TrEMBL record:
Name by which UniProt lists this protein: ABC transporter ATP-binding protein
SUPFAM superfamilies: P-loop containing nucleoside triphosphate hydrolases
Biological classification of the source: Bacteria, Bacillati, Actinomycetota, Actinomycetes, Kitasatosporales
Xref: Pfam families: ABC_tran
Family: Belongs to the ABC transporter superfamily.
Keyword Zinc-finger included in the entry's annotation: no
Alphabetical keyword list: Amino-acid transport, ATP-binding, Nucleotide-binding, Transport
Residue span, ABC transporter domain: 11-250
Membrane-spanning intervals of the chain: none
Stored PROSITE patterns: ABC_TRANSPORTER_1 (PS00211), ABC_TRANSPORTER_2 (PS50893)
GO molecular function, one term: ATP hydrolysis activity
Length: 287
């Protein structure tokens, strides 16, 4: 039975509670939606629960000894129950924090590894997917026989994204793709995210680089200590005083339009929790 039209290709996270072991409660009732074809961003400081949220969606929590205590994750109208293989088969694919490429393997073998979890199996499909990734990331074609660990951080990020694309995602989960990259490379990664989305893949983008994330996304949520503090259209969040002060830093310029070319996607030095007055005009997800 096909899902109702409004749920087709939609990710719906509802009231998710996640813990690690007995003592660490990482998410306290997080809800968010990624409609088909959209880019939704999740912002938040260190330890806010951003990666935990993506792990819960991709079914990789168990690898980190985490468990979903309550709440649900649905994609395309089907409940995902924390099984990574099923999530990938459903078209939900994660690019983990820190890239996690296989450094000793060649670029090409890393890409092949991405194909393993997908529903498509023939050699012809593998080649077609690989060639598509090579077209999108020419540097990966140039380095195809090189050990992946020898590439730069930005190139490794491209490989991690290329590997995820090999699984044919309908929804791509990106965990801090800009982390540790120089500004020009951050801009290139942002362009690639836009291209991938334009080709029809929905994106849930976790970032500490709020300027980049708000420019790319349609909507965004701000996570703070495991809860959604703010949710709204990205343009509204980018214009909100508190978000500008706490997450965008001084050099961001005029809202979510075009950041200063010399300081693309500048982040503030620290990203403290969002609290206090001044935020009530923005929609809060949890009432
Ligand atoms: N494997 C784990 N075992 C125990 N606690 C964990 C584990 N992973 C994360 N946590 C805890 O869960 C909370 C949320 O962590 P998470 O990694 O999701 O945050 P984050 O927003 O991704 O942070 P960062 O920006 O630093 O990547 C933190 O308190 C963290 O210490
Ligand atoms: Mg993280």
């Amino acid at each position: 039975m096909s899902p109702p039209e409004t749920e087709a290709g939609t990710l719906r996270v509802s009231d998710l509670h996640v813990s690690y072991g007995r003592s660490v409660q990482a998410l306290h009732g997080v809800s968010l939606t990624v409609p088909q074809g959209r880019i939704v961003a999740v912002l938040g400081s260190n330890g806010a629960g951003k990666s935990t949220l993506l792990r819960a969606v991709s079914g990789t929590l168990a690898l980190h000894r985490g468990t979903v205590d309550s709440g649900t994750v649905h994609f395309d109208g089907v409940r995902l129950r924390g099984d990574a293989t099923r999530s990938v088969a459903a078209g939900v694919v994660q690019v983990p924090e820190g890239r996690r490429i296989f450094g000793a393997l060649s670029v090409e073998d890393n890409l092949k590894a991405g194909f393993l979890g997908s529903a498509r199996r023939s050699r012809a499909e593998l080649r077609a997917d690989r060639d598509r990734v090579f077209t999108q990331f020419p540097v990966l074609a140039e380095r195809r026989r090189q050990a992946a660990g020898l590439m730069s951080g930005g190139e490794q990020q491209m490989l991690a994204m290329g590997r995820a694309l090999m699984a044919g995602p309908r929804l791509l989960l990106l965990d801090e793709p800009s982390l540790g990259l120089a500004p020009l490379m951050v801009r290139r990664i942002a362009e690639i995210i836009r291209e991938i989305n334009a080709q029809g893949t929905s994106i849930l983008l976790v970032e500490q680089n709020a300027a980049m994330a708000l420019e790319l996304s349609d909507r965004a949520s701000v996570l703070d200590v495991g809860q959604v503090r703010l949710e709204g259209a990205s343009a509204d969040l980018a214009a909100a005083d508190e978000v500008r002060r706490l997450y965008l830093g001084e050099s961001y310029g005029t809202g979510c339009g075009a950041p200063d070319a010399d300081a693309p996607y500048a982040t503030s030095a620290s990203t403290p929790a969002v609290t206090g007055p001044g935020l009530t005009e923005l929609g809060r997800w949890n009432g």
